Amino acid sequence: MFETQFKDAMGRVGRLYVRGRTVETPLIFPVINPNIDLITPGELQGMGFEGVITNSYIIYRNEPLRGKALKSGVSGLLGFDGVVMTDSGSYQLYQYGSVEVSPEEIVRFQENIKSDIGIILDIPTPPDAGHARAKADLEETIRRAKAAAHLKRDMLLGGTVQGSTHLDLREESAKAMADLDFDIYPIGGVVPLMESYRFSDLARIIIHVKRHLPPHKPVHLFGAGHPMMLALAVALGCDLFDSAAYSLYAREGRYLTTTGTLKLSEMRTLPCQCQVCSEHTIDELRASPEKTRLLALHNLHVTKEEIDTIKEAVHDGSLWELVEMRCRAHPNLLEALRILRDYPLEDYEPLTKPSAFFYTGPESLHRPEVKRHRERLKRITTSAKTLVLLSKQDGDSPGRTGSNREYHLCYLSPVFGIIPTEIEEVYPLAQHLYPRILDEPQRSMMKRAVKEYSKGFSRVLIDRALQDWGIEGEVLENLEIEADTEVKMKALADYQFGAGAGEVLFKGCRGRYARTGRLRHIFDGETLVATVRASDGIIVPALEGARRLLRLPWPRNRVVVEDEEVCRFVREGKSLFAKFITDCDPEIVPGSEVLVVDREDRLVNWGRAALDARELIAFKRGVGVKTRGSMANDESPVSS
Ligand code: GUN
Ligand code: ZN
After folding, report:
1. What is the CATH number of the domain that holds 180?
2. Which of 278, 333, 426, 628 could pair covalently with 537 via S-S, beta carbons 3.0-4.6 A apart?
3. Nearest C-alpha to atom 8 of ligand 1 is from which residue?
4. Which of 92, 191, 221 to mutate to test the pocket of ligand 1 (most atoms within 8 A of CB)?
C-alpha cells in the first residue's frame, strides 16, 4: 500500500507500507552483495537507510547462504532490520545470457526467504536493440509476469517494465504490467543509458512509462543511484531507487557529488562535511588502507543527503528549481531538461505551492506552470477594445488600477508573458522572480506573446519600459484607469474554474477589499460567495459559491462519491478519502478547489483536491479532498 503526503512536479513524498513497517519515499536501497561486505548492513542502518536490496539469485545458488536465508529469512541472513528488497537474477541474465533457475522458482524462492519486496525474472533488453528483438524479449517478460502474479503471497512484488529504447514498446509494456496489479513497478533495462549519460533517452522512457502505470503504485528506477540525476527522476515520478554506484565508484577511486563524479587522485580538498571527509585530510584518505570503504561511506552519505534535499524540495514546492540546478551539472542532463518541453506535464502540476517560482534560465520558460498559464489565459474574455500593456514595477500596489470594460490592462512578464491585472495576484503570477537583465529567449517570447494577444484589440498602448524591451505600440502618457471589480472577479473565476465560471459564480456580486488594496471577500447581498486567499490569489468558494459552481456542466470541478454512508460523513465535514472516489473532472490537479457530489450530482461538500484527477480515482489510501464546509444542518441538498 502506498500513500502520497506531498506533491511537486510529478514527484511525491509518500508512505509505503511493507509488512507492518512504514517507510518514506523517495527511498534509495543501497545494493548489498551477500558475499562481500564493504559496508555492513548495520552501518547502513546507522546512516539512516531504511531499506537495502540484495540479489536472491546469488543466495539461491550458494548452498550455505541459501540454507541460512531459508531458515532466518533474508533480513536475518544480512543482519538488516529494515525493508529488504530482492532482485531476481535478471541482471545475471543480462550479463551472462542465462540463469539456472526458472522464473517461477525464483519468485517462490524470494517469497520463501521472506523478502519484503521481490522482483520477477524479467528480461532486460539493451538500449538500441532492434525492434523485433526488443518485442520478443518483452513478450517473454510479460508471459513471466503473468505467471508470477499468481505466485505472490504476502511479499510485495515488482513487475518490471522493459522495451529497450522503443517508446511504443515501453508503453505497451507499462500497459501490460498495469493490468497485472503488481505492488511496485520497476523501470528496467536503463543501467546502460545511465552509464553512458543518455539522460534524455532515460527521461523520455520514464515519461512514456509513467503515463500508463497506475498512479497509486510506487515506481522504481533500476540501477539509478548517482546523486546528480535523482532530482530529475523524482520530478518525473520515480519513487524508489537502488544503487551499487556508491561501491562501484569507490572501487575506482571515485568521489560522488551532486554535480558529478570526481577522481580522488586528482582532487585537492574534500568538499564535504560528512564524517569521512571531516575526519580525514585528502592525503590521509588517499593513503588509507581503508580507502575504498571510506569512499563508499562518503558516496552513501551524499546520496542520502540528496534524497533528503529532494524531499524538502517536494515539501516546499521548489522541486523544479532543484532539478534545474542539478541539470546544469552536465550538458546531457540539460538536454534531458530540455526535452521535457515536449510533454504536457502541466496536467499533473500542483496549482499552488508554498515557494516562489524562480527563473533560472530559458528552460524555465517551458515549465508546466508557464504552459498552464498560457492555456488558462484563453479562458479570460474581455469586452474592452484597448489593450494596455505595462511592465511590472517593484512596489506597484495591486487593486486600484486595473482592467475595466473599456481598457484591458495587462502586465508583460519576462517569464509568463501576458498577465491581465485581474489575475495578477494568482500564484505564481505574483510570485515569480527573474534577473533584471533579460536574455534573448525571454525577449522573443514577450514579442510573440504581445503579437498573439493584441489580435482582438483595436488599439494597443504600452509604457516606456516596454518600448525599451523592443515591444511595439503607442506609448501611453499618464493614463489613469480605474479597476472594475466585476471584471476582475469574473476573470479570476474563469481563469481558475474555466470559461463561464465568472458568470455563474459572481453575477450581481460585490467585492470587499482588504486594507492592502487586494480583493478579499465576494458577497451577493449579505451572503458570502467566496474568499480570495491572500497567500496565492486562489478563489476559495463558500457554501453559496460551491452551490453556484454546480451550475457549470458536468464534470467540471467535480469529484464524485457514490457510497451513501461516505456521503453522510463527508457532508458532516470529514475529509474525503481517495478510495471512495469513483469519478472526477479530468482537469483537476493537486490544489484545485473542487465540488464533492453524490451520484445524483448533488453537493455533498467542497474543498481542496490533494491529488490529480488520475490519482484521485486510483489511490486506495490517504485523503483525496480536504473538505471545507459542513452541510450537516443543511436541509436542502442542492442539485444543478
Ligand atoms: N537491475 C538493473 N537493471 C535491471 C533490470 O532491468 N531488471 C532487473 N530485474 N534488475 C535490474
Ligand atoms: Zn563526504
Report:
1. 3.20.20.105
2. 426
3. 90
4. 191
User: 95 with 155, same domain?
Assistant: yes
> Which among 176, 221, 328, 248 has a CA at the least distance from the CA of 31?
248
Mean per-residue pLDDT for 391-416? Answer: 83
- Compute, in angstroms, the gap from residue 151 CA to the centroid of ligand 1: 20
- The protein residue with its alpha carbon nearest to ligand 1, atom 4, reads 188
Same domain, 314 and 425: no
Q: Which domain holds residue 108?
A: 2-343
- Is residue 194 domain-shared with residue 88, that is, in the same domain? yes
Please report whether residue 536 resides in a domain: no
Tell which one of 160, 161, 221, 241 to mutate to probe ligand 1, the residue whose CB is within 8 A of the most ligand atoms: 160
Task: Please check whether residues 437 and 586 belong to one and the same domain.
Answer: no
Summarised one tens digit per residue, pLDDT across range 218-269 is 999 999 989 999 999 999 999 999 989 999 999 999 999 999 999 999 999 9
325, 329, 330, 335: CA torsion to nearest 10: 0
Instruction: Report how far residue 225's alpha carbon sits from residue 565's, in angstroms, rounded to the nearest whole number.
Output: 46
Give the residues across from 560 on adjacent strands: 583, 597
Contact call for residues 78 and 34 (beta carbons, < 8 A): yes
Which of 419, 450, 475 corresponds to the end of one domain?
475
Ligand 1, atom 5: closest residue by C-alpha: 188
Residues with a catalytic annotation lie at 87
Q: Do 324 and 349 meet the contact criterion of CB atoms below 8 Å apart? A: no
Residues 328 and 405 in one domain: no
Q: Verify whether ligand 1 is closer than 6 Å to residue 87 (CB atom).
A: yes
Average pLDDT value over all residues in the chain: 95
Distance from the CA of 188 to the center of ligand 1, in angstroms? 5
> Does the pTM exceed 0.90?
yes
Examine the domain organization and report whether 37 and 151 are in the same domain: yes
* DSSP bridge pairs for 353: none
Query: How many whole angstroms separate alpha carbon 13 and alpha carbon 312?
Result: 9
Structural domain ending residue among the three candidates 459, 475, 491: 475
Is the same domain home to 319 and 369?
Answer: no
- Count of domains in the chain? 3
